[in-house]
Each structure stands twice: as structure tokens, then as C-alpha cells.
Amino acid sequence: VLRPHITNTIPVMHEAVASGKSILFEGAQGAYLDVDFGTYPFVTSSNTSSAGACTGTGVPPHKIDRIIGVCKAYTTRVGAGPFVTEDEDISNHLHSMGREFGATTGRPRRCGWADGVLLRFSAMFNGFDEMAMTNLDGYDKCPEIKICTGYDLDGEILAYPPATVDEWERCKPVYETVPGWMQDISSCRSWEEIPEQAKKFVKRMSELIGCPVTTVGVGPDREQTIAINLGSSRYYFLQSSSACMAELLFYCQLIKAEHTFQRFLRHRFSTAAAWEKLIFHPASLHEARKCLL
After folding, report:
1. Which of 20, 74, 125, 158 is most exposed by smallest CB count within 10 Å?
2. pTM to 2 decimal places
3. Cβ pair 288, 250 in contact under 8 A
4. Per DSSP, what are the bridge partners of residue 150?
5. Contact status, residue 197 vs residue 235, Cβ threshold 8 Å
């Protein structure tokens, strides 16, 4: 049955790329199970980061032009290993909804609050262009939601995970608390229908991660996957994220040329709506243009 479908797939994919076809690689397992960047020794045997798309397929890195990260609105882990935001209350809440049980073993997964530190570092070493956030409806009955913004390691606040598992195990979460929306959002089918507090949560996570959340999931069905307007979300991201502004300033320092700066912005904010909103916001342009002088 399988023999006719077995071939050297590398030439097949390169021919598809050369002819202008799109290829989608879907990763498996979480970023922190990566043998190089994960919570070693609590990892798998391969690269589960975006780099694995190249090492596993033979498509070179410069041919991959878009990387989309996928995360849950909260954090889960299977098996042993450091888990800074693990929390009994949110675990019980999710398990009581019938969620977060192993698909094969049926074991309850370890659960915790949203972890901006993990997501920020994951976005960094994976090179995410955007994020898709699932299970937003898992917070529907939470009056308050905790978001981890940093790790406290022996009194030092870290923006990124420490280098060793021993240090990781000593980290304590630094939380900010935001109001929940206390309503069922599983019937929402557009971003406009999402409650304001849920939108604020998603936008805050975009700030902490350092790249825009462009898709949210409010249930398991395809129609429960909601696209966020790229124009407004990227504009918001520029105005609100210091990470994005730092990226802009870094490129400005390198290029020192107005026309290149304009070309970079048009590439980074590729939709017409995003560009129009961007150029009509003098404060942001003023900050970025100072590096061109």
C-alpha cells in the first residue's frame, strides 16, 4: 500500500518551491521538549523547534518565509520537568471541564497559568512571525486570570528562562492579574464578538510574547478558530510592544537610509490598512526616524 508513495521527497519539495507552490510543515511536540533548547534532560530526542522543519525535510532555512507559533491560552506539561506557573486551582478548573487529559494514557496533564516568559523565549529561538492561541474559552468561568511576566530567581527578576534546570526549579512566577470575562465565548465566530476583557488578555499576551497573536481558538471545531484582523493587530503591536520598537530601532541603526527604512516597514507591516495606520502615527515614526539622523 505504501510502496508507491515512498520516494526521495527532497527534490519533490524543491521543485514545488521553485514553481511557486506553498508548503506547510506542521511541528510536533512542544518547543521546550527540543533536545537543544528545551528543559534538558526532560526533553525528546530531536529538534521540535522551527529549525526541525529544515533538518527533517531538506528544505533550507532561507526558503521558509513564515513561522506561526501555536500556544494555549494557559500552560500545560506532560511528565516531569520544571513548570514555574503550575497551579492546582487552574488545573482543577480545566480538569473539571473535561480538558487536559492525555489522549493515549488518559492521565491528567499538569496545568498552569499563561507564561509570558516561556512564550517570549520560544518566540525568540523559533523566530515566530505570529502566534495562534488556542483554548481561550478555557478561562470563560475565571473571575481573574494570572499572567506570568517574569521569573524570580533568588531575588533576581528574569525576563527569560535560566540556563540550567536546577535554577529553573528554583524560579517563582511574577504575576500580574487581569479581570476575566465570565461568559461563554465558544459561540463567537468573529473577533468583534469576543468580549473586551478577552481581547485585552490576548493583546497583553502579544506584548509579552513579542509578536502578534493573529488567531484565537474558542473551541475544537474549525469554525471556532477566529482570525484577528492583521491590520489592527500589527498596528497595536507596534504601538504597544517595546520588543517590536526595539526591532525597528535596531534595523534603523543598521540601514541609516530613509528609503530602506520605508521598505522595511512595508515588509514588516504588509497590509495596506496597517501601513496607513502606521504612517499616520507621528509618535512612533518620530522615535524610529531618530536613528536615521
Report:
1. 20
2. 0.77
3. no
4. 174
5. no
